[in-house]
From TrEMBL:
Taxonomic source organism: Trema orientale
Record-given protein name: Transcription initiation factor
InterPro entries reported in the protein's UniProt record: CBFA_NFYB_domain, DNA_Pol-Epsilon_Subunit, Histone-fold
GO molecular function: chromatin DNA binding; protein heterodimerization activity; translation initiation factor activity
A cellular component annotation (GO) from this entry: CHRAC
């Protein structure tokens, strides 16, 4: 049997199964249920088509703005345009949380870099002093030999 969709376009089946089971568990008190293979395939294909449609719409909005990179705001506008505005509120909340976490990571990374730079700057002058001191010690030893007259 020939596949209609390339492997690169397929969504990971394990993740789709996990999402479907998680969402169904919220709807049903019966925690033990199975999802038939055909149903899982239908969910996977539906999600793939939705992602393609949403990304194409967001891309169109991006091109209208004369930009080449799709932003999160383009996706939010695309959801409105394809009339899935009920997803806006939860998606905005997720996007805000994601941005907040990224900002914290960047802040922590930049602070870490600043600390490393500061340490390196503090170490460099002492290294230079140590090097000049050792050269001075060598010169002193050479001079001491000359003074004793051990020729």
């Amino acid at each position: 049997m020939e596949k209609a969709v390339s492997e690169a376009e397929e969504l990971p089946k394990a993740i789709v199964r996990r999402v479907v089971k998680d969402k169904l568990s919220h709807c049903s008190h019966d925690a033990d249920f199975n999802v038939h293979k055909d149903a899982l395939l239908a969910f996977t294909e539906s999600a793939r088509i939705f992602i393609h449609y949403l990304s194409a719409t967001a891309n169109d909005l991006c091109k209208e703005s004369k930009r080449q990179t799709i932003s999160g705001d383009d996706v939010l506008k695309a959801l409105e345009e394809i009339e899935f505005s009920e997803f806006l509120k939860p998606l905005k909340a997720s996007l805000d949380e994601f941005r907040k976490k990224n900002a914290e990571k960047k802040k922590g990374a930049s602070q870490s870099k600043d600390v490393k730079k500061k340490r390196k700057l503090e170490e460099e002058p002492s290294d230079k002093n140590e090097g000049s001191e050792s050269r001075q010690d060598e010169n002193d030893e050479d001079n001491a030999e000359d003074v004793t007259g051990d020729d």
